[in-house]
Amino acid sequence: MTSPSLTEVPVLEMSAGWHTGAPWAELREAVTRHGAVVVRGLGPRERGDAVGLCRSLPVPLMAEREPFAPRDRHAEGVYSSSRWPPDQPMCMHHELSYALEFPALMIFACVTAPGTGGATAIADSASVLGALPRELVERFERDGWLLERTYNGDVGVSVAEAFGTSDRGAVEAYCRANAIDFEWRGDGVLRTRQRRPAVVRHPVTGARCWFNQIAFLNEWTMAPEIRTYLIDVYGADSLPFTTRFGDGTPVPEEAVTAINGVYDEHTVSHPWRAGDVMIIDNIQTSHSTQPYTGNREIVVAMAEPVRLADCAGPLAVPSI
Fold it and tell me: TauD/TfdA-like domain location, by residue (predicted)?
């Protein structure tokens, strides 16, 4: 397989039946080869059509757990895009890269294209890995990365939205089963920590991929005024989320800046048209959302669940 070192996202004009049988098999192979493809010409123009299309694909869908931002659930495994301020970019990330099970495929169906902006951008994670400072990669490969979250009920998702239940016993059982350290604080506030590998191997191609949300979920990626506000309100040790080196050491601002800078250098944008369907290999390709104006509706499906243990690496079975 070749690496998706792209200058643009491949756009394929497909005939009827593209999402079944042999056409789908060819398309699925193209996604692995390029990292992402766009199907144009026969896509959905209504939300119900988009939901139906996602559910008709010959791949297993998965329910989202541990989201970082709220979504609307349209059907089992099919959601709205994350609710996010339209004037703020959603930075590069791999969906659920902090979970022990995550989607191998992300499927985006554009119902309403934005007035301006709003592109879904991608970056090849193998190329990003090769361009990052060597000493930074070596440390993250050695120690992994640590995601810290505080479910305070005010910012981000609630405990019930993250874990599918508000029952403390069920939440604790989920955390134990998924290598998440936890503690309950006053007023039902939940604090969690989970250590994960920063580099994995693609289960099909064997390519080493920079696979994490170290920069996106780090406090230094926040707008300075938002970071200052959150620290003032919740304290530096109780932010809704931040990331650290796997040994618990803070990730310095310059490291986060370097990671985001490499992402910027490898970003390829796809401007949406209504009816477009974009399919992304979630392991070898990160994605982001650019700021936009006007209405924008993207239906999202998470497909082909894969276990972190199947992406062999030194921290494939993590521990706190």
Answer: 24-302
Instruction: CATH number of the domain at 160, please.
Output: 3.60.130.10
Structure tokens at 266: 């490898």
Find out whether 210 and 125 touch, Cβ atoms under 8 Å: yes
29, part of any domain: no
Sheet holding 277-281, edge to edge: 11-13, 36-40, 277-281, 101-112, 297-307, 78-80, 73-75
Asked whether residue 36 is assigned to any structural domain, the reply reads no
By the 10 Å C-beta count (0-12 exposed, 13-18 middle, 19+ buried), 1 is classed as middle
202, 105 contact by CB (below 8 A): no
Closest CA to 65 of 172, 129, 160, 207: 160
d(CA 202, CA 310) in angstroms, rounded, equals: 9
Domain span including residue 195: 128-259
Q: Which two tokens stand for residue 11?
A: 């756009």
Beta-strand pair 36-40/181-184: unpaired
Work out how many domains the chain is built from and give that number.
1
Name the residue with tokens 């209405």: 295
Q: Which of 263, 171, 153 is nearest to 214 (CA)?
A: 263
pLDDT per residue as tens digits for the range 136-166: 999 999 999 999 999 987 788 899 999 999 9
pLDDT tens per residue across span 5-18: 456 788 888 777 78
Q: ∠ at Cα 268 (263, 269), nearest 5°?
A: 120
What angle do the packed helices 253-265 and 134-143 form, to 10 degrees? 110
Query: Cβ contacts of residue 173 below 8 Å, gap of 6+?
Result: none
pTM for the structure as a whole: 0.91
User: What per-residue string of b and e applies to 134-170 under the rule 16 or more CB within 10 Å gives b?
Assistant: eebbebbbebbbbbbbbbbeeebbebebbbeeeeeee
At position 248, the amino acid (one-letter code) is G
